[in-house]
Specification:
Two copies of one chain form a homodimer.
Chain A lengths: L4 E6 L4 H12 L4 E8 L3 H11 L3 E4 L2 H10 L6 E4 H9 L6 E4 L7 H9 L3 E4 L2 H18 L2 E4 L2 H10 L7 E8 L17 H4 L9 H9 L1 H14 L6 E5 L5 E7 L4 E5 L5 H9 L13 H4 L1 E3 L9 H12 L3 H17 L8 H10 L9 H21 L5
Parallel strand pairs in A: 1-2, 1-5, 2-3, 3-4, 5-6, 6-7, 8-9
Antiparallel strand pairs in A: 8-10, 10-11
Helix pairs in contact in A: 2-3, 4-5, 5-6, 6-10, 6-14, 9-14, 10-13, 13-15, 14-15, 14-16, 15-16
Chain lengths: 391, 391
């Protein structure tokens, strides 16, 4: 690449963060880490800081920040703490690219800060666009910030749309693995344990995303994310089950031509694409062997069996506070499920109940979006109590 | 489209020509026919001329031209005849786009003439690039002529490469249906009749292309064509059997990402793409339904069972007069097979024998290429006599 890109990684100790650092390590001539941020994993941050020598590290948790400060004494690395510390890492003047891979709605403010600072934002956090898509895309436009998706689906769409006639776009087709329960029959959904939900057949991801994948809420969030990234209404964004996860997504044009992006199921590929953009980096990973894969299958999703997908389409259609409410309620419900406090099948019920009471808000006002998020978490808690679920 | 495009169709009464006219009829506001050319089908030309009102029609066959002249008396349409007539239609000053869909090496000179006249050449005739790729691509460069492939495979590659980083190209993957004999076991090749070879499972095409598809020589010709269109050596152009013919071809980049173009098996789609380029036209054909198709399969080709494919790679590697010799010998052998004068299994043997004797020529000299083509046809005839085949 022509100049070395300086990267700030928000959520560096999570799954996307680790994959990002793997790419940086392989391409040290092209990429350089200037900031690392984590919620509370100070041991992880210490290891990473010693290896990648950033200018700053940030920990949301005060105690973790204090421990990191101790561990990095004399290393010449500034340690930031709290929400403010994360926001500073997100808007660091030294950073060219901000990898936004904080999990959940906690990623809204850092993503907004990076966009406000006019960065190239490599976005893995889909909740930011789901809840605050109107605010963030308008701010990106205003500040000349570029949002490059890291989700494999949106990266696929982004890649195939490069250089194409946008006016000729008919629809997007997001593929979904279907998660661990696709094709297993409705019975299995009655008895899902966290272990079962976390056993994803194709992708290695964090627990929140993996459970969302099992309910298909993940695909619903992606539909809303795709709406904000590519400007199409929900009825022009389709979902197709593709258990092999080789076709990462597709675009159909008005002449009937479909362009698809394919690859192995390795998050390092879309991450590397975002970091290298507009150039592609030469990567030594085993390429996809279609003759080995042999068979690609496609099925229509079952909206009855996976109601979260339909809820997301509904949220996108209704707009206002509904997407943020849906997202917040889902996060609370998934937390409760992972903690053994809510049956898997009730996740959609909690989300729907909160959506049905969502306030009308001005979704171009970030403070209203955040207030709505807080309201929805509380509402979800109350509803789960009535389910006999939440603590 | 911004301006109405004026089209000359060489081979208008063949399969590609008919599909081209179907598109023109649907988009009369954007597309207009100024010339129609056919070998000898004056009845077909008359019907088309009355419907599409071109400025000129051209027939290679003198008698057919005379009959057409009679039929079009007073219609204000000029009738051209002979090789010279076809070349005039190919370089008509009024034409913006020349659709080059003459079958076989007969397409070399008209394609060259269109390129020499600086036209946009929508190229269906693959033999022109196979035999005279060096001459034609150099002339296109010199004259600023743009070659837009109409073959579904090359159209697919062209479409996915638009706007992509060409330096990052790792390889092309051309898909092949495998033809009617894929997966049927070697035994079937012993007893192939013309009827069997002409019964293609996926694509409706003319007889020459359909037999080439059954021997896989068609895919070999496409490998060479892809070399000239996209500038990659043969070892970076792969062939993959894909019996469903839904993925029309693919491109792999250095980061492992694969971009593919898909669609229904309808030649009108790549034709419309070439005619509309750089815009896509809104077409009312049924779009591809992947959930309906369900399953896409991929297999490595069997070079032992389909030796013509390996011969083509060999011809591309050896260069000089070998590709032109291979192509001419193949045309003669296919003719003999269709006439019942050569067993299907001997087509490859005839081609190989001619290739083995191919003269060293300067393949940037069109007259040498054409001389080589004539030599190879004669050599093929002699060899077929020794097979006990040719008349």
């Amino acid at each position: 690449m022509t100049t070395r890109k300086r990267i700030s990684i928000l959520g560096s100790t999570g799954s996307i963060g680790l994959s990002t650092l793997d790419i940086v390590a392989r391409r040290a001539g092209d990429l350089e880490v200037v900031a690392l941020a984590s919620r509370s994993d100070f041991r992880g941050i210490l290891d990473q800081a010693r290896r990648f020598r950033p200018k700053v590290v940030a920990l949301f948790d005060d105690q973790a920040a204090a421990d990191a400060k101790k561990g990095l004494e004399g290393a010449g690395i500034e340690v930031l703490c709290g929400a403010q510390g994360i926001l500073e890492a997100a808007s660091l003047p030294d950073a060219d690219i901000v990898v936004s891979s904080v999990v959940g709605a906690a990623g809204i403010m850092p993503t907004y800060a990076a966009v406000q600072a006019g960065k190239v934002v490599a976005l893995a956090n889909k909740e930011a666009l789901v809840s605050a898509g109107a605010v963030i895309t308008a701010e990106a436009e205003r500040r000349g910030a570029r949002i490059l998706p890291i989700d494999s689906e949106h990266s696929a769409v982004f890649q195939v749309l490069m250089g194409q006639d946008r006016k000729a776009l008919r629809k997007l087709v997001l593929t979904a693995s279907g998660g661990p329960f696709f094709g297993k029959g409705p019975g299995i959904l009655e008895e899902v344990t966290p272990e079962m939900a976390l056993d994803h057949p194709q992708w290695k991801m964090g627990p929140k995303v993996t459970v969302d994948s099992a309910t298909m809420m993940n695909k619903g969030l992606e539909v809303i994310e795709a709406h904000w990234l590519f400007g199409l209404p929900g009825d022009r964004i389709e979902v197709l089950i593709h258990p092999q996860s080789i076709v990462h997504s597709m675009v159909e044009f008005i002449d009937g031509s479909i362009l698809a992006q394919m690859g192995v199921t390795d998050m390092r590929l879309p991450i590397a694409f975002a970091l290298g953009y507009p150039e592609r980096m030469d990567l030594p990973f085993d390429p996809l062997d279609l003759a080995e894969a042999r068979k690609l299958e496609f099925f229509r999703p079952d909206f009855d069996l996976f109601p979260c997908l339909g809820l997301a389409y509904d949220a996108l259609r209704r707009g206002g506070g509904v997407p943020a409410s849906m997202n917040a309620a889902n996060e609370e419900a998934v937390d409760a499920f992972l903690a053994g406090r809510l049956p898997f099948k009730e996740i959609a019920g909690v989300v729907k109940a909160v959506m049905d009471r969502a306030p009308a808000i001005d979704d171009t006002d970030l403070s209203e979006v955040l207030k709505c998020d807080r309201w929805a978490r509380q509402a979800a808690g109350e509803i789960m109590l009535s389910f006999g679920g939440a603590a």
